[in-house]
Amino acid sequence: MNKTILILVEGQTEERFVKDVLNPELPGLWFVPTIVVTKEVVSGPNKKGGMTSYAKFKRDLFRLLKNTDKIITTMVDYYRLPDDFPGMENRPENASPEDRVTHVEQQICLDLSKPKNFLPYLSLHEFEACLFSSSTALPETVIATHPQEEKFRKMCEAVETPEMMNERPNQSPSKRILSIFPEYNKVIHGSTAAKRIGLENIRRACPHFDSWLHNLKKMAKPNV
């Protein structure tokens, strides 16, 4: 039987990734995504997507945490995370990106009083990092030219792991992709390329992402 996991996601791309990649390729787990609400509208549908403040993130998270029989997690970009998130102001200096993002995740847990059924995940540094797990999938998805293919291949080979790409505005994964593929559309191309890469390949290339899924699997195991 699948263990249901309620996952708060940043936008439509992450929602599609959950439905198209995680659910088909992770037997035993079943993710139900909810896009964070950025503006509640009385007379119409709420506006969703994007991370504008910790208060809005926390509000939506509390709604999910009411489901005490479910595992609750998140999929939010660490890149440009609002400064009011717990742990952002006192991240360890001169530490690895993984240590810095883990610090923020831990502080979010502490701020929420460490719910036993909660495991936060922040993407290092954003969703697009996983697309560097393959040098061919994204170019195939956007129907790239040969020069574009070569530029992307060299960019992939230049980093130790996709998650090590830094968070400077012009060096983030999405900005690097757009510098080669101006036609790249996150919602249209992102999940499709990730599906072509395959979950196992992404896990091998992205240790922080892999650790998150590994820990969710552990949480989902029935108590003996």
Concise structural overview:
The protein is an alpha/beta fold and 224 residues long. It has helices at residues 12-25, 54-65, 97-111, 137-142, 146-157, 173-180, 186-197, 199-205, 207-220, and strands at 3-9, 29-35, 37-39, 47-48, 71-77, 118-119, 122-123.
Notable traits:
five-stranded parallel sheet, alpha/beta, globular, single chain, two-stranded antiparallel ribbon, about 220 residues
What sequence of helices (H) and strands (E) makes up the elements?
EHEEEHEHEEHHHHHH
User: Would you tell me the overall average pLDDT?
Assistant: 91
- Form type: globular
What structural class do you assign from the helix and strand content? alpha/beta
Amount of helix? 40-55%
Give the count of helical stretches. 9
Rg value:
17 Å
Distance between the termini: 16 Å
**Beta-strand level of the residues, as a percent range?**
5-15%
The low-confidence parts are none
Question: Major β-sheet, in short?
Answer: 5 strands, parallel
Q: Number of DSSP strands?
A: 7
